[in-house]
Request: fold
Amino acid sequence: MKINLAVLPGDGIGPEIIDVAMNVTKAVCRKFGHELAYEYGLCGAIAIDKTGNPYPEETHELCMKSDAVLFGAIGDPRFDNDPSAKVRPEQGLLAMRKRLGLYANIRPVATFNSLIHKSPLRADLVKGADFVCIRELTGGLYFGRPQGRSEDGTTAYDTCVYTRDEVERIVALAFEYAMNRRKKLTVVDKANILATSRLWREVAKEIAPNYPEVETEYMFVDNAAMRIIQWPTSFDVMVTENMFGDILTDEASVITGSMGLLPSASIGTYTSVFEPIHGSWPQAAGQNIANPLATVLSAAMMFEYAFNLKDEAALIRDAVDASMSANVCTPDIQVEGGKKYGTSEVGEWLVEFINS
Reply:
């Protein structure tokens, strides 16, 4: 198979973790006889520095002509600390999602037996946790208009907007995922307060009868936040709106023991983007300490979801599991007293495992 990728390393630790994921991708393609073609593009702060645009037109054209996009992370404290900045790196990510039609973000959350001790939650609570969060990605507060501040700067406002079509699209996708898993779907909203949430619940209840095999439950977002911590094994597939999904999936990262272990896939109209859920961690850039496993697992999702190459994806996940069992880990998940491994050393070990 010919695999044509756009590779967007981004900012901070992005280039380091993408380098590892690409080396793993190349090793898998060699092993299985796939023809790999790829091209790098700019996105985020580095794109602002070089072009003035966090998502340049050249990058968009590259993504549009690619079968999939492997993405690192964006963000730079220079922009965080400048409230007057007209352009911010995160605008590049939002623009990419909107222009590529990336309406669904798929985030699997699963524990690794060798790392249960790293979770701040009790082992008996997190052991066996295995669920998928499906987050709507192109609507809600992050894209609602109007948005801005009053002329005197003392008032700020954002608008949360959803259409019936947007909700139907993501909820139907979530039901399909539930059908292929343990047939349970949790719809998360704030329908007791928000009009948009009431639309979500109304649409979900209309669609649910089309999937009689799926057990459907409706849960307020505050209750869901508690349940993720108290009883994570109760979830199978969870679907929710943009901002709620952003917050809940970051919260869910504590189940695995590290944000550096959670991959994601953003699927939509034109192509799919695969990326770790964590940020750019600019303070760690160039120090060879960033955990590359979430990005490597995102590459595994890419093989599976973009190309239907399940054996290739399984080999990558086996390599990641083996590396953690062997304690070949970056400092964030390393067992105390073990040998110190950096980002690149973990990557080299993974490639050797794949080649063996």
About this structure: The two ends are 22 Å apart (CA to CA). The mean pLDDT is 93. The first helix runs from residue 14 to 32. The CA atoms of residues 125 and 231 lie 6 Å apart.
